[in-house]
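Journal club prep, notes for RB
We'll compare a predicted complex against what the paper describes. Inputs for the pyridoxal-5'-phosphate case:
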Amino acid sequence: MIKLNQSRKFRKYYNKLIPGGSTFSKVEYFNDQNVPFALSKCKDAKVYDLDKNEYIDYILANGSVVLGHNNKLVNKAILNQLKNGISFSLPNKLEIEVSELLKKHIPSAEMVRFGKNGNDATTAAVRLARHFTGKKNVLFCGYHSWQDWYVGKTSKNSGVPGEISKLSHRFIYGDKKSIDKLFKKFANKIACVIIDPLPAIESKPNKNFLKYLEKKCKEKKIVYIFDEVVCGFRYLDKSVQGNTGVKPDLSAFSKGIANGMPISALVGKKNIMKKFSEIFYSLTFAGETLSLSAAREVLKIHNNLDIPSYIDRQGLRLRNGLNDLIFKNRLENKLKIYGSNSRLLIKFHEDYSNNKINFPQEWTKTVCKFGILNFGVSMISLKHNNEIIDKTINKYKYIFSDINKIL
Ligand SMILES: Cc1ncc(COP(=O)(O)O)c(C=O)c1O
């Protein structure tokens, strides 16, 4: 049993003051007295909770840490910039330097606008698309943000006017019929198609489907948007567009850019991006220099090091270890590893359902007990070396016999 006294005390205090928590997944999946509630320190692949318990981290701050926590080079870049100030009253040179690096790494990037969260970039993309086309309807696939245009079509849509929700329409990844139905129904009224090109459940991008959308959007003069907030600078070739050769009109990047510092970028084709001067998208902190200096450092590291290939290899090592344990524990009919090597997802096998067990909750409780932090999704960083992965697999040997008992 791990000691969680401080965590339990802090949980009570926090909940009295911060309703719902600052980030949904951080409170939603750790809603149990037997899991840690808050962290106080992080370094490389490890994090420490308030009771000083150590965990190998596979959440990586919602996937926003790619180089590993508390990276020396990024810290140095931030400290150097700090000597000259944080937020300026006029634009700064870093905005240009980071834009040039993004242009270099992302095939469709001709122009760039900065924001703070993935949400800023996806929402700005939708507004720009509506302005550019003069159309209102949005076809989407994936999780995109907390904004009305997206949340209106989820189960947590209270507070969103129906007039807005009715303009957004969800389609199914890889399912041409589901998007064709929407193309037909909303015909000349569609502003954009926005898609997470590598959803958590998929092992690789569906190039055929993404190409199909590209062709259809071109034909119908619809703005084609990639939401690469998670996969950007994490998946092979630095982006799904780089990997598949599919070229969206606009794309949102964020979590992969600055190793945990808050920044996002909407990039895209000049003819559309230049229309930003005709709409309103403005943030006080969009040019904040500590995040930009972190981004410059991270993007420069990508010049010389194929980080996504390393992540893919280490993810595969973990995947093989987990599959081995699923097999040895005779759980092949109950559990399955989904997702790409850069974002592994363990859940009930598609043919198995067990309504009595809340699997993510049981999983989280069990892995935390053994010093691993995740809620079924495993993200990999540059610090998840062979030693860390093998140590994790060793811990999973015990975890799987516990999980087996629960199942
Ligand atoms: C695919 C995708 N797009 C957009 C977002 C929104 O990013 P943020 O939470 O930084 O606003 C997320 C967040 O998890 C995401 O997974």
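Talking point for the session: Residues 62, 117-119, 122, 142-145, 196, 227, 229-230, 254 surround pyridoxal-5'-phosphate (CB under 6 Å).
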